[in-house]
Amino acid sequence: MSLSQEWIARADRVIMKTYGRYPIVPVRGQGCELWDADGRRYLDFLAGVAVNNLGHCHPKVVAALQQQAANLIHCSNYYHVPSQIELAELLCSLCFADQAFFCNSGAEANEAAIKLARKFSREKYGAERYEIITAADSFHGRTMATVSATGQEKVQRFFDPLLHGFKHVPFNDLEALRATVGPQTCAVLLEPIQGEGGINVPSVDYMRGVRQLCDERQLLLIFDEVQTGLGRTGKLFAHEHFDIAPDIMTLAKALAGGAPIGTMLARAEVAAAFTPGTHGSTFGGNPLMTTAALAAVRAILEEGLLERAQAMGSYLQERLASLQRFPCVREVRGIGLMVGLNLTIPGAEIVNQGHARGVLLNCTHDTVLRFVPPLVVTREQIDEMIGILERILAEI
Ligand SMILES: *Cc1c(COP(=O)(O)O)cnc(C)c1O
To answer: pTM value?
Structure first.
């Protein structure tokens, strides 16, 4: 038995089966590369599902974690945390928001957004106004409220009754949204580009129309930028592509260069609805993670990674478009380094073949290969991945 096989046998006994895990045991990472327990190298085009935007073990994130770990790891939100304050200042200086709440994951950030939207709306407009409209094929997390918000039956199945007060409408369909808004509606929650739903990019007209509709009907617009945020699409935040801003935004995945953190950002008027005792998190915004996040966000800005995501994103999309000569390849879609290759067949076998040949690929929504590599990916690495993909497609 190889070392990887030994780990897998042990996992089988003690790890709950919530994931359909591949038989790979990564133990070390550097940039866009991972090595498994048996020393096999993989080129990583999943990047921890859009988490490792800076690549694995970015030296500035590693140094921040090491230094802060030796200084203070946790102290409680009963006290003030300098790195949390600095991170909030930095993030607010980079977007529409005035204030931040910190937590530990994307789902928690969306939970906070849902609670804030409800509390703000009930106090301003009355208790009947609590409903949140989200999109079909959306993904907002795995907690009960975010499962209820998610527009995918496969995520909701088995967990009835769901939280009351969510309605789902088709994405990129302004009329459907307009028709669903009622006196009970308090907010619209959308991913600016759907990730798990298959890399769905809405039209500029739709996104601007949503903003306008929210203004007309006095609804909060919440953007879930957990996957799209922090340079993934070539802008720091994906909503910048549409020249609009939300009232509330959630971030997580790439925020701390691989370390777990989430945040919910809002305009001051909305943020004011969270008063002492109304929401909280033991670990949220702790010194260790916020120090890592400060290093990660600064690195994204200082190392030109937005420009890099644009340039490498165009190159990746161009190379993927050349695969349309294969009959099972339908279309390429995406922005920056958030790219989907839509297939006419399920992508699972291509992913397995990729693993066997040393490249970590991902398939979402059954038939969409999703490419979300580190933003530090090189042309040569894209070429290497495309070469492997070409050989797989030629054999299929
Ligand atoms: C990953 C993801 C989440 C959930 O984040 P967790 O950290 O897994 O809770 C929520 N929304 C979007 C858009 C995501 O991609």
So the answer is: 0.98
